Each structure stands twice: as structure tokens, then as C-alpha cells.
Amino acid sequence: MFFGGGVRSRWLRHPYPQIVFVLSGVGLLGIDDAEQEVRPGEVITLPALICHWHGASVYTEVPMLSILRPGPIQWRESLGDTT
Questions:
Q1: d(CA 30, CA 53)
Q2: Coil, strand or helix: which one is 33?
Q3: Could you give the CA distance from residue 57 to residue 36 in angstroms, rounded to a whole number?
Q4: What pLDDT digit, counting tens, does each position of 9-41 carry?
Q5: Least C-beta-crowded within 10 Å: which of 4, 20, 48, 70?
Q6: In this predicted structure, what is the pLDDT of residue 81?
Q7: Average pLDDT value over all residues in the chain
Q8: Which domains does the chain have, with CATH numbers?
Q9: pTM of the predicted model, to two decimals?
């Protein structure tokens, strides 16, 4: 995945767990009402069916490696800027 500065995905969920590895920059991850920064080298494991979003901080772009079993993504409402 790649997010330009300040860009975020829509809310989504996957039918299987997702592993995200941050390659560079400062990323953002939203789960429920919480938002957390993620930095290079961090590995995040998201459980199956959890609603979340991915993005980048306003000041940096961020590439992330996503490891995920194939399956339908359930897209939800927008957060504003979307990818």
C-alpha cells in the first residue's frame, strides 16, 4: 500500500487477519475511535473482521507492505481524503 501525505483510506475490514509492515515515513492506523502512528520497521497484526483504516501523516508519505489472504474487502464510509 502507498499513501501520500495526509491521505487515508476509507473504513474497511477483511475476512482474514492482515499483517502490515511499515517501510518508511510515518503512517496512521485507525481502529474504532483510536488513531495511532506507525513507524518504519513496525509490524501490525489486525484481526479478521475488525473495522479499520490506513493512512499517512500530513507531513510524510508512507509505503506499507500488506500480507493478507485473498478475500473480499468490505469497504465502509469515507474519512474525507480516500485512496
A1: 5
A2: coil
A3: 10
A4: 999 999 999 999 999 999 999 998 899 999 999
A5: 70
A6: 47
A7: 92
A8: 2-75 (2.60.120.10)
A9: 0.85
